[in-house]
Design a protein that fits this description.
The complex is a heterodimer of chains A (about 240) and B (about 290). Chain A is an alpha/beta fold. Chain A has two domains: about 120 residues, D-Maltodextrin-Binding Protein, domain 2, CATH 3.40.190.10; about 80 residues, 3-Layer(aba) Sandwich (D-Maltodextrin-Binding Protein, domain 2), CATH 3.40.190. In chain A, about 40% of the residues lie in helices and about 25% in strands. Chain A has a five-stranded mixed sheet with strand order 5-1-6-13-7. The longest helix of chain A has 16 residues. Chain A is globular, with a radius of gyration of 20 Å. The termini of chain A are far apart. In chain A, about 45% of the residues are buried. Chain B is mostly helical. Chain B has a single domain, classed as MetI-like fold. Chain B has ten helices and two strands; from the N terminus they run H-H-H-H-E-E-H-H-H-H-H-H. Chain B has a two-stranded antiparallel ribbon with strand order 1-2. In chain B, a hairpin with a 2-residue loop joins strand 1 and strand 2. Classes of the chains: A alpha/beta (about 240), B mainly alpha (about 290). The interface between A and B is large, with 53 and 47 residues.
């Protein structure tokens, strides 16, 4: 066993870091459609699954998908339990202090307030539901509103439906299909706000090589026109796309 | 699962339900029950062993041993479970990787801590990055067993410590009078008799352990509560063949029934054990048994 380990170690040194980088573990939440969700078969699916698989194929990497609770998604990245976060995570200065982001693969998307149809709210006084640790939660806290935090996106919608909160603030891409499927029960109840600097892939600050690899692939996909159709496929014709 | 499941939108209700309840996602949900039961089956004996060790240490004759036992019991019992699970598991995982790093990569010249990043050489990763996802799941489960065993071991230790002190002093004195060594007296007199005093406390710990299994998700293991929440959440037709409104109440109701049934069965087993262990004991229950038999 020891000899086997030594041999593997020697091989790894000879092959340089390329061997070690061959398999990349992609961390996601699996609860934020259309970005990422668990499909009927129990597999991770969504825009980011398709995008991630395509990026890995182009970079010649083998990618394994992992789900992780949103709350501990950053600690587990820096601890090395997976190598990337691809979970609809907006690029913000606060997060940038702990991890690094690739360039954005989704342009900044407006955040929308959704509440019961026929109501109108003032975000500074109404009770607003948001997922813990999101830019939307930070925004409500910053404008001094009454923030109600929930661990999953799903819980925020449920809070609006059962009257616990007056509205939910989240990415419009996430809320749009829900409003549409609600059959008139839910509607937009306040003007949109622009938050965050687009959505990028999170990597460890020390992983400069991996960051460069994915940055290059994202640039390539933007330039050869494969990224925009993918965004439209998952988010619809009205989605923000790259110029 | 069934052949008629190809187009769920056109199905009558019962067939729709049959298809819905047998999707891959539901299968994962059912498997999670096995995971939880397996966790309990491994954790309970492990926690009991740790508890026994802790209680024995806390009653030890040498003060360093006694200190270790007491510190273990008080610290672990005092820290909230959720904080313990969030901090301890990452620390434990990093500890293992650090040890492997020292052993496997003596020539590594980069620092392990870079800012907030924890970086060991690729060979020291546990499990290896290249390992299949099943290995990662098994490793997460293994960490979960250790964490649960340590937390519930501390509670068990306290219960057993109390139970050992409750065994009537006269019993131990008699053992000494017969010339038994302390070790013999412990194993032959105290150990068999302490259980009847420990049982009420142990059954409490067991019940709390059953109810604590949802913390598994914090450790990266998808447990029944995670799947219930995931499955019950409202689904729109765009992302699922089985769109439905928020059904979490039904799923949680099902979990409630499961947990209630489980704890009810446990209570019966504990009642039987108490009866069995009370035989011949100088307790009220033991006395009642003696009179009943006569």
């Amino acid at each position: 066993m020891n000899r086997l380990l030594t041999a593997t170690a020697a091989l790894a040194v000879l092959a340089g870091s390329a061997l070690a980088q061959d398999t990349i573990r992609m961390g996601t939440e699996g609860a934020y459609p259309p970005y990422n969700f668990i499909n009927d078969a129990g597999e991770i699916d969504g825009f980011e699954r398709e995008l991630g698989d395509e990026m890995c194929a182009r970079a010649g990497l083998t990618c394994e998908w992992v789900t992780n609770d949103w709350d501990s998604i950053i600690p587990n990245l820096v601890s090395g339990n997976y190598d990337t976060i691809i979970a609809g995570m907006s690029i913000t200065d606060e997060r940038d202090e702990v991890i690094d982001f690739t360039q954005a693969y989704m342009p900044p998307d407006p955040s929308t307030y959704v509440g019961l149809a026929g109501t109108e709210i003032d975000p500074t006084t109404a009770v607003i539901a948001a997922q813990t640790g999101t830019i939307q939660a930070a925004h409500i806290a910053a404008i001094g509103g009454a923030l109600m935090e929930f661990p999953t996106p799903d819980d925020t919608i449920a809070a609006v439906r059962n009257g616990e909160a007056d509205a939910v603030l989240a990415d419009s891409d996430y809320l749009a299909p829900i409003v549409e499927a609600s059959g008139g029960e839910l509607d937009y109840v306040a003007p949109d706000v622009m938050l965050g600097g687009g959505i990028g892939m999170g990597v460890r600050e020390s992983d400069t090589e991996l960051k460069a690899t994915f940055d290059a692939v994202i640039t390539e996909m933007k330039e050869d026109g494969t990224l925009n159709p993918m965004i439209v496929k998952w988010f619809g014709e009205d989605a923000q796309v790259w110029e | 699962m069934f052949e008629f499941c190809t187009d769920p939108t056109a199905l009558p209700d019962w067939q729709w339900m049959a298809c819905y309840l047998t999707t891959g996602k539901h299968m994962a949900f059912y498997n999670a029950f096995g995971t939880v039961l397996l966790l309990l089956a491994i954790t309970a004996p492990a926690a009991l062993a740790l508890g026994l060790a802790g209680a024995t240490a806390a009653r030890g004759r040498l003060w360093p041993v006694r200190a270790i036992g007491r510190v273990y019991i008080s610290i672990v019992r005092g820290v909230p479970d959720i904080a313990f699970f969030l901090f301890f598991v990452i620390a434990l995982d990093q500890g293992f990787e650090w040890l492997r790093h020292q052993a496997l990569c003596p020539d590594w010249d980069q620092p392990i801590r870079q800012g907030s990043d924890f970086l060991v050489c690729p060979e020291a990763k546990l499990p290896l990055t290249t390992a299949p996802e099943a290995v990662h799941q098994a490793y997460g489960f293994f960490l979960a067993v250790i964490s649960y065993a340590i937390v519930f071991g501390a509670f068990t230790a306290n219960v057993l410590y109390g139970a050992m002190n409750t065994v009537p002093r006269a019993q131990m004195e008699t053992a000494e009078a017969y010339g038994m060594t302390p070790r013999q007296a412990f194993w032959r007199v105290m150990f068999p008799q302490m259980w009847v005093y420990a049982l009420p406390g142990l059954s409490n710990v067991w019940m709390i352990l059953i109810k604590a299994t949802p913390l598994l998700f914090l450790l990266g293991v998808s447990d029944i509560v995670y799947w219930a929440r995931e499955l019950g959440g409202a689904k729109v037709a765009q992302f699922s063949d089985y769109p439905h409104p928020d059904w979490r109440a039904w799923y949680f109701l099902f979990l409630l029934v499961f947990y209630l049934a489980f704890t009810a069965v446990s209570e019966r087993i504990f009642a039987r054990l108490t009866r069995r262990l009370s035989r011949g004991q100088a307790t009220v229950a033991g006395e009642a048994l003696r009179k009943g038999a006569a």
